[in-house]
Amino acid sequence: MNKTKLYLSVVIFILGLLLRIWDFGKNPPGLYLDEASQGYNAYSLLKTGKDEYGKAWPVFFRSFGTYPSSLYGYFTTVPVYIFGLEPSVVRLTSLVFGLILVVLITSWLGLMPGLVVAVSPVFIFMSRAAFEANIALTIVILALILAVKAGIRHRYLPISFAMFALSAYAYHAERLLGPLMILLTSLYYWLKQPELRKNIISSLIFSLIVMLPIGLVTFYSGTNSRLQELSHTGTQLEQLGQIISHYFSYFSPKNLFIKPDPDLQRSFPELSVFHWWMISPFIIGIFHFLKKPNNALLFLGLLSVIPGAVTKDDFSTLRVLPLFILVTLVISRGLEKISVHKNLLLFVIIFFSLIDNYSGLTLLKHERSRVWNYEYRQLSDFLLTQNKYSVIIDNSRVKPVYILLAFYSKYPPQLIQQDYPPDFLKTYYQKTTFTSERILGNYEIRSISWADDVYKTQLIVGDKWAISDQQVSEHVLHLVRSISDINGNPVLKIYLTDPEKKCLNAVKNHELYNPLCEKFTLASTVLSF
Predict the structure, then answer these.
(1) Residue 494 forms beta bridges with which residues?
(2) Cα–Cα dist 205/186, whole Å
(3) Which of 367, 395, 421 is the last residue of a domain?
(4) How far is CA 105 from CA 12, 108, 154, 162, 331, in A?
(5) Is residue 43 part of a domain?
(6) Is residue 344 located within the same domain as residue 387?
(7) Which of 90, 130, 312, 340 sits at 20 to 30 Å (Cα–Cα) from 61?
(8) Average pLDDT in the 524-528 region?
(9) Does residue 143 share a domain with residue 204?
């Protein structure tokens, strides 16, 4: 590598780093539920060697009955051990893997592909939050690079297969993609390089050993519940048609360059997978890529779409991330052909991408703080100062809100584990049912019961749909604190009940007598007249 290329590689890395660490941990604002689950389970593993349910080192976390991959949580135990349990610490794993991806692509495919990965919205976004799919992508690309190099350096083949196998633990899509890539690579080298056949067999055995734990639990009802939930419905012919339609939707320029991911927690506002101005280089690049294809990346990209196609979502970036590396190479080929001044072009791309990404980051912080549960950090911080009261927290809108409160308060995992008897663990991978009602110390997380809760002195927390102005007046609730989103708009309100006054009002208004009022002397006196 000459000095100019080395300097430019460093510039690309620094650019990728800056776009990923600016306002890191605070943008996206808050923490989404799966992030909190991965972080808290990493915390639980460190403290107890078990997840929140008391399962020792599970292959999949049970989480909310969706059984997400656990590898992210295991990797995250290291930064949590060093820095503690914080949103930025939980996201650090994704950041590191995202930066490794920039280095891998730059060193393998060249400066222009490395730059596209460094500045494209999809790769930046995935590196800024705790996405399991992001670490799976980096592992798969490393495995692919080693597989390509194994044709010359045979010792790389077992490592490559082991990495493909490891990716199956990182994200559900790779449970299909990893084995497919192992089989395809085996077939390729078996036919092309017969001298590698012994190495192929030993590498296959090695990969099977790596995948043995996941193989033992992969067919349980729980570990496949998410796939069953997302599967297409209808007749077999209708399902096939939907799969084919969804497969090709991932190659649509509209989905790749114009429309953001439909899930608000999977993209920047108004930014698609790649920047809109990359569409022309993409079209130009297709023709040049077809003249000189990268077969390894082509097969990876085409296979990686299958996990996305077999689910009912029209477009999901998370499930097909390896495809976007193929698209990156195509865009890069087009960019390289539209200018003879490549170094100047690099800086033009940097300029326009900085403008777009700054806009995306700004909009994300101010438009989607509620989507990322920003208000629950403020709620937890306030409630930690109110230990003398029991607290009812309504969970009508955010069902597993308990995990956010457990995360922010660093609630002892041993106490949560006590809620699950030993018999529960016998069917750990088969329990898809989930209850969001929890008790964490003096917090009770459930729907508000107006027939009972207002007759005890306690705090009640809810949004405007859970606690209306009419209910505030009727039940004599006193506003203690209003929790706002990042723009200062009220989201949650904390009220203190006044059961004695509630009972007195009930007497004055000749309402139906509630036995819970008997403990209040003044109300009982009034009732005696």
Answers:
(1) 461, 481
(2) 12
(3) 367
(4) 11, 5, 22, 20, 14
(5) no
(6) no
(7) 312
(8) 46
(9) yes
